[in-house]
Amino acid sequence: MQTAFRMAYFYTMRNLILPALALFCFSLVGHAQLRPAETTATRGSQQGPPIIAAKYEGGLFGYSEKITGSLRFDDDNERLVFLNKDKKEMFGIPYDAVLVAYPNSRSVTSTTGNVVRHIPLPGAGLAGLLREKRRYLVIQFDDPDVAARGVVNFKIGNKALLDAAIRTLGNKAGLTQRGDAYYRPNNGKVPF
């Protein structure tokens, strides 16, 4: 008797869950929207905002501390300027000195995930799966002050701002696009 009840329950659940799951999957597919493909000309003509919130993560000689601030495109002096949170200019990188500008991202466990995973409760270790993606603008440049090459990193809040910053810097510095990155062609010069 119990086996017959279990079989009836199984068939009833199968007849309810499978159609509901199929309906859910098809509803997701039905809401997908097509959008026209972007061309390189369309992407290159868009300019980003003049000031972008950023956090300096390191790489410039003389600035070893992480600093929260913003990036500003100074077109009058043809350079990218980093301002601290008080809007005081910290340093600038001339557009002519930029060799490569590209995005980078790192997936890390969030602070909340690190704290919760160390709580001695069953299942708390799963909080370590709470990940966040950090996005960086990486700029390789010739430092005109010390006659050396440097790599500077800025943490940018989201992908849209990061893409706008790279695109704008690439266009203003006269760089060539390759995928997500912009670079200055070598033109047969010896690198050092």
How many E strands? 9
* Helix share, percent: 25-40%
Q: What is the H/E order? A: HHEEEEEHEEHEE
In spatial order, strands of the major sheet run 4-3-2-1-7-6-5-9-8
Give me the secondary-structure category. Answer: alpha+beta
The rough form would be described as elongated
Instruction: Please report which band the strand proportion falls in: under 5%, 5-15%, 15-25%, 25-35%, 35-45% or over 45%.
Output: 35-45%
Work out the helix count.
4
Q: Describe the biggest sheet?
A: 9 strands, antiparallel
Mean pLDDT: 76
Low-pLDDT residue spans = 37-45
First and last CA, distance = 86 Å
What does this protein structure show overall?
By secondary structure, the chain is α+β, with helices and mostly antiparallel strands. Helix content is 29%, strand content 35%. It is built from four helices and nine strands; from the N terminus they run ααβββββαββαββ. It has helices spanning 2-30, 40-45, 111-117, 159-172, and strands spanning 51-58, 67-74, 79-84, 89-94, 98-109, 131-143, 148-156, 176-178, 181-183. A nine-stranded antiparallel sheet has the order 4-3-2-1-7-6-5-9-8. The longest helix has 29 residues, at 2-30. The radius of gyration is 25 Å and the shape is elongated. It starts with a helix and ends in a 9-residue tail after the last strand.
